[in-house]
Amino acid sequence: MLQQVQGSDAAVFAEDLVKEFGDKRAVDGVSLQVPAGCIYGILGPNGAGKTTTIRMLLGIIDPSSGRRTLLGRSAPLDAAREVGYLPEERGLYPAMTAREAIAFMGALRGLPLKEGRRRAEQMLTDRGLSDWIKRPIRTLSKGMAQTVQLLGTLVHDPRLIVLDEPFSGLDAINQEKLEAQIRERAEAGATIIFSTHVIAHAERLCERIAIIAGGKVAFEGAVDEARGRLRPIVQLTTRADSGPWQSALPASARRLGKRWTFELPEGGPEPLLKALIDGGAGIETLSIERPGLHDAFVAIAGEAAARDMTLGGAPE
Amino acid sequence: MTLPRTLEAALVIGRRDFTATVASRTFLFFLLGPLFPILFGGLFGSIGANVAATVEQPTIMVVASAADYQRLKEARDRLAESFPKESTVKLVSDRAPATRWTGPGVPPPPPPPPPVDGVLTGGLAQPHLVGSLSDDGTVAHQLRLIIADARAGPTQRAQPLTIKTISKSSGNIASARALTAHAGQALLFLLTLLLAGMLLSQLIEEKSNKAIEVLAAAAPVDAIFIGKLFAMLCVSLLGILVWGSCAVGALLLISNGSLAGLPAPALGWPGFLLMALAYFCFGYLLIGGVFLGIGAQASTVREVQTLSMPITMSQLLVFALSSTAAANPNSPAGLAAAIFPLSSPYAMLARAAEDGRWWPHLLAIAWQVLWLTLILRVAAGVFRRSVLKSGPRRRWFGLGRPRTA
After folding, report:
1. Chain B residues with CB inside 8 Å of A107's CB?
2. Do the Cβ atoms of A202 and A209 come closer than 8 Å?
3. Complex-level ipTM
4. A295 located within any domain
5. A101 and A32, same domain (yes or no)
6. pLDDT value of position B394
7. What angle do CA A112, A118, A121 make, to 5 degrees?
8. Which pTM value belongs to this model?
9. Set of chain A residues whose Cβ sits within 8 Å of the Cβ of B388
């Protein structure tokens, strides 16, 4: 997998990252590559090690072992000015105004404070939020504060944007807006990495994903590749109750009246269709569906991890 | 990250901390802080003086002839101005004043005699004092003088001493310098304690509102450490500037527009103030560095209180050491206080008030710079390891032990 994208070309490259806290190994040999310009999802249930992995990639904490590069630099903080980071636990100073908070986050990344203030006003005005400009953060709702922090993450036009659980705490409308913003930034050439425990977001946005469970990478690659690990699902309804056509169905096929559900056999749809027609099944309806990312996740990470993903919501 | 970028990040963080602190209500209390000890000192001082004047004045009952009592009383009144006002003995006679009852019915009983500390018997010929008197002999000494004066009579009394007050004498300068040394040390200690506490609260607030992760993702932890430490130093220097201006203004008012009358410290006022500023910076940075390192270990206010208590107690010990040595900076205790890095700024400030030589200060500053570098490096390391619970476990130190992120 790691040979597909050269480490030097990757926006983010990690090899065998390990992080131990005391006797606990929180991340156990994570390797991944994020090609420049792609939207990359890190999927995993709560406590899988997503946040710790992101913190190591960004240089917030040092790995116990392993190596990583960020935008080609082995010391991640050297690339800090080209990176925007939205942490899972949002951190803003309550007394700061929205404009100052955004400008301050830009200043931390090398954007002059004056320019930061100008851009902050522009960003807020563009989103119809000009009345927030001089409002202290403590007077904003959680969702509003999250928007301010996201703008602070983007104010210096970073090449690499890392968002840790960006959708948590947002309502459906704001989730949709955020998805649109992510796509917009990606179209402008930025590389975007986000972690989530909600598979639907990754399915809609990501080109590549890493599935992390129990501190290990269970899968790393393109979304289609993850789905491709499962056979397509066939839904078949016949007029005939039985007949020689049944021998064309796999042994694992499930029957409900005249409706059958099974994985598409190795030979593909054409031999199956021929056998059904020749065997007199009397096909009433037939559909072949590609499995979703959720099905792929279940197959890769297991039922227990998938259950946590769908139940997820609490911070990691 | 390169050094210029680290310093730039430290400046951004420091500027934020400085403006946030100066614009907060806390800073107003910080500025008003020195007023409280002055107000409380004045209030309790005047209450104490009144209490001392009314309670501590010893009362002696005189059992003697009316003539002897009268002579003793006159002598006491003549000498009263020579005794401390609040402890001048008060004489009462054992004879009740002769009053004739003119009202209707039975005369009321005489008022009870006042509580007395002693009884003087034997008249002027053979005076004998019995009583529960203080050990310092002040009362007995006063009575001897009163009895001698009463025997000699007013005509034999010596001419009163004429007094002309001058502002400077060798004894007066020495005591004024000792006072300056103690006051300087106390101020330095209180200020560093207050600031280190503020620094710690701010760090904890930042850890609890998670802003620390935003900072740590953008700047090296060293930049955060330096930014925070120096921001609070600038806050305190601003405070000192305000307090200093007020103090100079008040002194100018009190001394009718001239400070020349104040006894100068050994290094002179400019030299002393310069050294005070330098020692304040060193004292604060040393203690602030230690507090930040400690604060990084804690995640709640309760943990901070637990952790900072032993540090504060140690600081008190350090202050006690340097305060004891202030009177004699060349004593072994004085030299030890000057050499021990955490007490050195206090001890050397006292020396600046009492010793006019410059070279010990240059040596002390070099010594403190060395220790400051060392302590800041260690504290920044502990801070780096602990503030986000990062890095491998340090079994030898315990304090740097990380926990789950």
Report:
1. 12
2. yes
3. 0.80
4. no
5. yes
6. 45
7. 135
8. 0.71
9. 55, 60-61
